[in-house]
Structure formats: structure tokens, C-alpha cells
Amino acid sequence: MSELARNAGIxxxxxRKDALAELRGKHATTSTLFFAAIVLLLFGxxxxxxxxxxxxxxxxxxxxxxxxxxxxxxxxxHLVETDDGALEQLALYPVDRxxxxxGKALSGLxxxxxxxGVLLPVVAILYGIDLAAAWxxxxxxxxxxxxxxxxxxTFYAGVTVRMRAREVMLPLLMLPVIAPLLLAAVKATTAxxxxxxxxxxxxxxxxxxxxxIVMLIAGAATYGFLLEE
Amino acid sequence: MKTRLTGIVGLLAVVAAAIFGLFVxxxxxxxxxxxxxxxxxxxxxxxxxxxxxxxxxxxxxxxxKRDLRFDAMALAGAEVGVMFTAFAIWGGMMWGxxxxxxxxxxxxxxxxxxxxxxxxxxxxxxxxHLTDDPTRRATRAAIVGIVAAIDIPIVxxxxxxxxxxxxxxxFGDPSKLLHPSAPPLFIIALMSMLAAxxxxxxxxxxxxxxxxxxxxxxxxxxxxxxxxxxxRVVQPRPGASAEVRVEEVTS
Lengths: 229, 251
What we know:
The structure holds two protein chains of two kinds. By secondary structure, chain A is an all-alpha fold. Helices cover 83% and strands 0% of the residues of chain A.
């Protein structure tokens, strides 16, 4: 078996473990989704009741809700590893550290996709948006945004998980770094929903993809140092 | 002694450059006296970027050599850099109000990027503050510093795009000050302030580095003191309980 296939197997095993733990325990899914829905409702109170204004701001609000709820999700995925020294066990496995990073990022990606998949229809209902016309570019944007968020989130959750005041430190460190992601994702969503009159959708998606690649490489290269601690 | 001399020279140079920029160089025709802010603004922004460059480089060197002196260097870069960057943003806002008519100009990519830069490194300093173990702190800080440095060009690029795809900037561009068409006196004022600030920067970096080393020694001293105290406590009854005691006192 080749090295890459072996590492992919390890990453899948870690992601599967996280998914199983979540499916059986249901620690985070319900509360995180509910939190995101409340955030979207509150945005409505903050900007409404003028529905035109809400429709206009919808892409930004959607991605802010994804970011806030995503912070909880990626933090949670590392927090479960602190019980009973699970993180130390994980670090002791004689495998490539990049595979461990990939596994944790994969479960983060799954969480983000569930989050986005639920929030997109909620936004459509609450803010009056027609998703059907632009479903393909929206899914691509969501996927690329989720990959980037999971790549960065896994890294920073790993940094902060054993720190004092980690609940504050994770958003504090992570939010400035994902600013380009937020910007590009909101722009791509706006372009997709508006029928892309200026032909800028592809540029924003390329920026997102480039961001994802850079951050995945940076995360994979540095995550091993965190496990050494 | 040499460091102190650097500090004194830097201070005198800043005073001299300030007198030159305030009283010798004439006011700008369009921007008036507000333009004089640019002399300190450009200099501090440049040194902010330079400091964060030092932090990223020192972080890489730390991960490579595992020498805590590089970590002290990274700390010096981040702290001095945050100070200069905050000063640059403040100066930029003071300049923006009379010239642009607003403190904050979302269409200026430099301003937005620099604000995020400040947020990144304030976070970096907080991260250091909240980690007690020196090697753990150094490792965490190094990788966070490296990822922050990787993020900065992407932020800058995306913000330029964000504006570029929208509409072009219609307001004054600070970089035009460095344009050859600017009167030579303006350029001399800017360059002398830059030189003076750089000397001060060198002084601050050395002092912060030395301070970080002293802080580390005190930390280390305290740790060793606690371990030795624990050893003395357990000495009368040597045996299996000794290690447990040491752990209790040091943790």
C-alpha cells in the first residue's frame, strides 16, 4: 500500500471516529445548529423588518452565522480529545502527523458542510431568497468556504485547546485570519445569487480555492509541532 | 553602553527630523499641514511591517534550532511591531479626517490590511501571555506567527480585489508621496524621519530582547527554586513519595 493511501486511510479513520462519537453522543450538532439559527433570527431583528434590506445583506449574514457557529464546531471537535488524555494518545500513534491533521480537518469539514447545508435553506426562508436559480455555484462556494474554514479552524483549535481562556482565544486568533475567506465567500455568494452580472464569480471562487490550498499546506506543515507539546 | 548610545542618538535624530518636518519643509499645497503627519505615519508603518517580518523569521529559526533566544527575538518583534502599527493607524486616521473627510476609509486596502495585521499580532501577544511553559509558549507562538505572516499577503490581495472589482479609489493615495514628482524637500523630510525612527526601532528591539531574556531567567529561577524547595522537604524521608512531592509543588 502506498504511503498516500495509508495516510488517507488514517485520516478517514480519525474522521470516522469523530463522526461516530458525534452521532452517538449528539454533543454539539443540535446546540450549534440552534445557535446559528438564533443568530440569523437576531440579524433579522437588527436589520429588519424591511425585507429588501435583509435580502441584500443575506450573503454576508449567512457567512457570519456560518463563521460564528463554525467556531463552536471546530473548538468542540478538539475539546472532545482533551478527555482522558485522548490527544496524547493520538499524538503517540506511530503515524504521519499530517494524516492526523487531515483527519481532524476532515471531520471539521463534515461539520461545516452540515452547518452550511442547514443554514442555506434557513436563510432562504427568513430573508426571502431564491436558491433554486443558483444552486450549483452556491454549493461550490459553500464547499470551498467549508474547506478553508476547516483547515484554519483545525489548526487554531489545536493551538488553543490546552490553553487557559481557550473560548476567547480561538475566535480572537482565528477571526482575523479567516477575513479573506469571509470576504471572498460573501462576494461569491452575492455574485451567484445576483446571476453574476459582472462575471466575477469565478475570480472569487479561485481566490477561495487558493486560500484553501495555502492554509491546508500551512496547517499540515505546522500541526505536528502542536502534538509534540 | 552601546545600546544606550543608540537610544540617545535615536532620540536626538527623531527630534531633529521632527523640527525639519514641522518648520523647515513647507506645507503641502493641497493637504496643508495634515500632510506632515505622513512623515511619521509612513515611517512607523514601515517599521511595523519590518518587526512582524522579524517575528516570523525568528519563529522559523526557533522551530529549526529550538533556541529560546530566537523566541525572545520573536517577542521583541511582535511587541514593538504592535506599537508601531497602532501608531501608524492612529496617524493615518488623523491624516484621513482632514484629507479624506473621514477617519476610516474602507476603500483603502492598506488601512484595512493594517487593521487586521494589528488584530493578528495582538492575538499573538495574548497567546504568549496565556501560556506559562517557556518551550510550549515558544512553539505555539512560532507557528501562530508563521501562519499570520502567510495570511497577510492573502488579506492584502483580497482587499485590493474587493475594492478593485467594485470601484476605483478616488481619494488621495499616500504612496504618491514617495513618487519622484514629490518635491525633493518632502522626500528628504520623509527619509530623515524614516532613518531616525529606524534607529529608535533598533534600540527598542535590543532592549525588549534583553528584557525577555531577563524575564526568562527569573521564570527559570523561580521554577528551580520550587523544585529545590520540594527536594528539601522530602529529604528527611527518602523513598517513593519523593517524586510525588516534587510534582505537587511544581505543577
